[in-house]
Amino acid sequence: MAYGASATAHDAHEHIPTGWRRWLYSTNHKDIGTMYMVLAMIGGVVGGAMSWFIRLELAVPGIQYIDDFQFYNVLVTAHGLIMVFFVVMPALIGGFGNWIVPLMIGAPDMAFPRMNNISFWLLAAALILLVTAALIGGGPGTGWTVYPPLSNAEYHPGPAVDFAILSLHLAGASSLLGAINFITTILNMRAPGMTLHRMPLFVWSILVTAFLLLLAMPVLAGALTMLLTDRNFGTSFFDAAGGGDPILWQHLFWFFGHPEVYIMILPGFGVISQVVSTFSRKPVFGYLGMAYAMVSIGVIGFIVWAHHMYTVGLDVDTRAYFVAATLVIAVPTGIKIFSWIATMWGGSIRFDTPMLWAMGFIALFVVGGVTGLVLANAGVNTAVHDTYYVVAHFHYVLSLGAVFSIFTAFYYWIGKMTGRQYPETLGRIHFWLTFVSVNLLFFPMHFLGLQGMPRRIPDYADAYAGWNLVSSFGALLTALATVLFFYIVYRTFTAGEKVAANPWGEGATTLEWTVESPAPFHTHEEIPAMGRRQPAE
Amino acid sequence: MIKRLRVLAPLIAACAAAGSALAAAPEPWRLGFQAAASPVMERISEFHNLLLVIITGITVFVLGLMVYVALRFNEKSNPVPSKTTHNTVLEVLWTAVPVVILMVIAVPSFKLLYFMDRAQNAEMTIKVIGHQWYWSYEYPDHGNFTFDSLMVPDDELKDGQPRLLAVDNKVVLPIDTDIRILLTSDDVLHAWAVPALITKLDAVPGRINETWMRINREGTYYGQCSELCGVNHGFMPVAVEAVSKETFQAWVKTANKEFARADSDALQVAETGTGAR
Description:
The complex is a heterodimer. By secondary structure, chain A is mostly helical. Chain A has helices spanning 2-8, 19-24, 29-58, 69-105, 113-135, 160-188, 201-232, 246-280, 287-300, 316-328, 330-344, 353-375, 378-384, 388-418, 424-451, 465-495. Helices cover 33% and strands 22% of the residues of chain B. Chain B is built from five helices and eleven strands, in the order ααααββββββββββαβ. The chains are: A mainly alpha, B alpha+beta. At the A-B interface, helix 4, helix 8, helix 10, helix 11 and helix 12 of A face helix 1, helix 3, helix 4, strand 7 and strand 9 of B.
């Protein structure tokens, strides 16, 4: 059936559907990728607005604007869920993955174009459900982890949590279908000569991510279904009074949740590898090591989940195991960091905007990574568990890691997508403004956490005031940077310079730079000659 | 308004004093842990100091390399890029050296973890029960009395009581005593946390979690619930008052008169497990 679509397409060879049909019925990987990106931008504005509201409340001690603490908890919850499922994932996997992977491997489209369509629309429906959840029945004030008993019907009566669960179910189904599509596409539709070991690292990163999704999402779906029946049909999987166990939820959730954080960051690794290589005008250093570092991060990512649960009362030997397993992740991550630097070493580096973002990514990811090294140790973790130290850590790897890689990818590929280049000076200002402001925003959180300020509280002891104010000031600057970003998008579309097929020169060796800019509606209709683009091992 | 100004004022003073004061509560502009007041916290601070050196070293090393690369291998200073893509020695090194660093971290980490887990011979036991949104405490070894501990609302604060941290009934505990703490919850998950003493453990309905503490010096130690537990999660603090053993015995006498017995009525919560003492 999948190939039926391309078989019937040749009578309408250059026919591009117009109006709403082009988008609603779309089976084109580029259009679907664009829709994913628009969704991620909408999600980013909504989720970002929530976080700015939170920082506004926390700018000074006392209650300023949010006197309904359930609403505060709903903001915290929705911010987390939206940023994970409706910003980072759709931008990197659905957006750049869809757009770039077929171009990079020389495929005319994704393997299952219609499934690609339903993947996107399920996610759009999921976002509507989640926003609905936040607006009805008091909203889900459970945190993005939805821990029972707080998420049980007794403590969250009303439909809000049910809506959130259904939203995550749809988002999960969307991701699963997307993952199947990527795996099939990458394994079966590469241009002749492009062996797995010659695939660009971005394609490798999407392949590993897709496998993580394939294995992790069903576990989340099972856990969510159990929670749904606990809430509505009298089961007691997570209710101690009925013979269940709230900790079971945490095991299931984090068995999904830990791979999920790699799902968010791995495509970013892929983007950074492409960009660092392009702007250093050198092939990636240690290509095979880079590819298999991602594979091993993916594999180890499945056996470290309980490091999110060091304080729930796990047996000490269990905790010791999870400490050891978690520390091991530092090795492949280190390989990646050092290989990026070695790629730059000896290069002839151009500091265009994408390269600035990529180097910013590496710098901030190292900071987030080393605090992860601290958190991995169950002993010290006890001191900072559920404090702002953890908030700082995961915002350094995600908000600064994953989001920086999204901006890297945006500036790198926007010319290919729109045929118009972004304004270079504004791009650089955007980078520096963001770099400074996010550090102001998140670095003081380390200090707050070490001192013991708990997460997810709407008001704090007066002594925490100083660093909170600095942090909120950083949030304000970040908001300005975001406004600047949208202005850059506007300028790119309205006044961007037309770009050639390959604006980046000899360093850009992957196949997407061989097609014209903007990439035509259908690309690689003839199988491209591979040559020796990626060095074989 | 005045409060806001007061908060900002001690910036310089506090920065200078950071680390010197014996903090039992958070301090403005402090950068690190609250001052340790228990053997566990001392060891955690020590281990964290080691970690801090290692992670700062790694970060500075990587950032230094990046700055060097940016200066030395930019388009102007190095117009012709090399084509090197392999260096086996280097690749083995950057795999092996991190492994060694991880070993350096792992050994003290495991030691600390096992030291923290349980008291070998606890001299007394208290039970801590989390509720939405307050804590209650039981003293099974001292007459089995029980009391609730609720946050003091802003408008009832007395002089010197920190906002959001002060409670009506503090948990009074003797210093220099190995104290076993048993934790459970009456409703949702909570976490009982006191940063200066580094006790943090979740209170889980249907389970009894165990940890321990030993307090080195007298004083009041503040902490907060550290697991999202609903609307008033931010408003169920923990306050531990550490006193000398003699004062503690005196307090136990009055507490037995003042507070109800845990087994006096329907309060029988999780009695098993500690009855032997």
